[in-house]
Amino acid sequence: MNNTAQLLQNNKKRILEIWMQNQLDDEALRDDLISNEELRRQSEELLSSLASATASGNVENIYAPEYEPVTEILTDISITRARQGFSPRETGMYVLSLKQAISQVMENKLSDKPEQLYKELNTMHRLLDNLSMVTFDTFIKGREEVILRQNDEISEISTPVIRVWEGILALPIIGTLDSARTQIVMENLLQEIVNTGSSIAILDISGVPAVDSLVAQHLIKTVSATRLMGAECIISGIRAEIAQTIVHLGIDLSNIKTKASLASALQVAFAMRGVEVRKSNKNTGLNLLR
Amino acid sequence: MDRIPILKMGPYLLVTIQVDLYDRLALTLENDLINMVSKTGARGVLIDISAVSIVDSFMGRILGNIASMSRIMDAETVVVGMQPAVAITLVELGLTLQGVYTALDVEKGMELLQTKIGIIEDPEDEDEEVPDDDTV
Amino acid sequence: MILSKDTMQIVHEQNVVPFRNRVKELATKIGMSLVNQTKLITAASELVRNMLKYANGGKILLEIISNNGRTGVRLTFMDEGPGIADVQQAMRDGFSTGKSLGLGLPGAKRLVNEFDIKSKPGEGTTVTITHWKNGR
Question: What value does the mean pLDDT take over residues A156-165?
Answer without folding.
Answer: 82
